[in-house]
Every structure is written in C-alpha cells, then in structure tokens.
Design goal:
Elements lengths: L9 H5 L4 E5 L5 H9 L17 E5 L26
Parallel strand pairs: 1-2
Length: 85
C-alpha cells in the first residue's frame, strides 16, 4: 500500500493528452486479462482506456502472464532506450 497517492476521475484521465499505465505483479494478471477480453464495461472500469487515443499499458511478465499471445508486444529491457521529443 503506497504511503501517498493521487486520485483522478475517469473524465480527467480521458482528457489527458497521453495515458501511461504501469502494472506489476501476478496480482494484476486477472484484471489485465479482463481488460483484453472485454469491451468497455462498468464491471472493469479501466476498460474505458480502450477509448483513449494515446493510452499505453506497460506490464511486467507477471502482470502479463494471463494475456493471450498476440495481444501484447514484448519490449527487450536490454535494448537501448529511445526518447521522442
């Protein structure tokens, strides 16, 4: 549990220019699988990110462990970083 956090409503998130979501750990795997397998639904609120034109999810292998092959792109952590300005 974090010592502090920022809370934002979905409207604020959807108005953002870009959304980056970072998920780590096996505990997130089932919810992330629901994200991939479902349309936008109130039962999985963050599926609304599917409607955001620049939403990207970054997952560690454990968080991605229940995603079907072909629904995500692996990034080689040893590859050089690319910075876009």
């Amino acid at each position: 549990v974090p010592a502090s956090a920022i809370t934002m409503g979905m409207q604020d998130i959807m108005e953002a220019r870009e959304v980056l979501l970072l998920a780590t750990g096996q505990r997130k795997a089932k919810t992330l699988a629901k994200f991939v397998q479902n349309d936008v639904t109130e039962t999985v609120p963050f599926t609304v990110l599917k409607r955001h034109p620049r939403a990207r999810l970054f997952l560690d292998p454990e968080a991605a462990s229940e995603l079907p092959e072909g629904t995500y792109q692996r990034i080689d952590p040893s590859a050089p970083a690319h910075v876009h300005t």
